[in-house]
Batch of 2 targets.
Target 1
Amino acid sequence: MAEEAAQPPLTINTQYVKDHSFENPNAPSIYGTMRTEKPDLNVSVEVTPTQLQDGVYEVVLGLKASAKIGETTAFMSELDYAAVVSLAPGVSEEMRERLVMVEVPRHLFPFARAILADDTRDGGFPPLMMSPIDFAQLYLSRKARVEDTAGQA
């Protein structure tokens, strides 16, 4: 019984790059343009869990970043960084959702952020240093949107 109580609710079994791309379609001309004009950055975040078996999930943190100057693309980077995690037996549904949608992405984010920073630096741009993401707030916002959509149907 003491062993069960000591088992952590979440174990990250492995983490890995699932999909990754970087495009620099307007090199080398874009570098001159960037000396005089600041690009518009766009970053999006998506968390996608998939149950693999009872208590085992793959959680994919999808990050997309792009920079444009006017209509000209400076760069586009897409990364799906994932983990396979195990949840302790007996975890409530509410706790399962919070672990999978908040805690796992929170653990994955520093690794994914470093990959995107390396992408942009290696592509000849200043490293993209993403600010930390409040995954709890992101989860609550998306949950509220889903509930609103369900209520309107």
Target 2
Amino acid sequence: MHLPTIRDFAREATVPGCYTALGPDWSLAVADVIGSTRLASEGRHREVNFVAGAVIAVLTEVLRQPGVEPACQFGGDGALAAVPPGFRSAAADALAALADWSGTEMDVPLRVGIVSVRELLDAGLDVMVAVQDFGAGNAFGHFLGSGVAAAESWVKAEPKRQIAPRPGPLPGLEGLSCRWRPVPARRGTILCVIADPVAPGVRGLEIIARLQADIERVVPTAAAAPLGTGETLHPKLPSADSLKLELRTEPPRRRLSRAIRAVAGTGLLWLADRTGLRVGALDVPRYRAALAERSDYRKEANGPRYVLDVTEEEARALEALLERYAQAGEIVYGTARAASTTITCVVGDFAADRHVHFVDGAELGFWRASVQLKAMRAHTAEPAA
């Protein structure tokens, strides 16, 4: 099944007609890091992002069909994917192997599970999906509908829905890396935003469409891309910490060769960038532009998720806008500020131009925003005194 493609996020991301409603034979794969608070307090922010990126890297390979890009979404400390009919068993095996790898190799506990869309539909909840496809096998998933939040909460709250860790193959993990250093804010601050409608169904979709139109009036989000157009991105040799993370994707016997390839590849990129020379098929300006374009700084998961580079005035205006919607009882939201943007990369085939990049505010901006949203949701759900 070919999923609809979103080309213009600002115009199409909240339009139900740009999505397809998933049928009962589909499922949602859910993964989230357990104990993000502890890991953040230990300064292990990049490891959390790395594990979330690993889920995307593996599920993208497992769920890919000829000519059809899967809908997978990075969430900072977790991930979400639409599982087509016939792929549930393969997705479950991949999630079990990811949880095993994350716990044993990364010392990062990972909760994973799968929820049938049939169950969501029976509960009166819907899920709509589209992909933002950049060609050459590069795509991100976008999700609308209250079934998304329900699936995530069901897996988290109900152990029977969780898949136990189990060793297994992890195709796609070899392309995961985090060699780029954090990218400082250019315009003032990095603002992470997540918002969900309080009302389900059509009313909730209307609220989110109106909210995002108001956000675009405050700051055109395309102009607030945290990586800009890539013009300020300049590669450096990978840090020791990022290299250590990357090596954990390989068995011990292959780690030396992985380290050599990582240093050599980044060194070649650095040399080409410094000299301005084209090295073989490596065109650094084109690569930088593609990296920025294929960063997931705007996405939908029931409501908007943004990582924006904004001025202080714009940040205050966005926070005030979100608060007005919340005071009207229309949304719950969370925001978090950061000094820089972190990048986690999945490079499937560099020569074939297959590479996508997941961004987050430094120090787990998405997770910090989600903590605020969950607190607001809990308060909203409390009965009046």
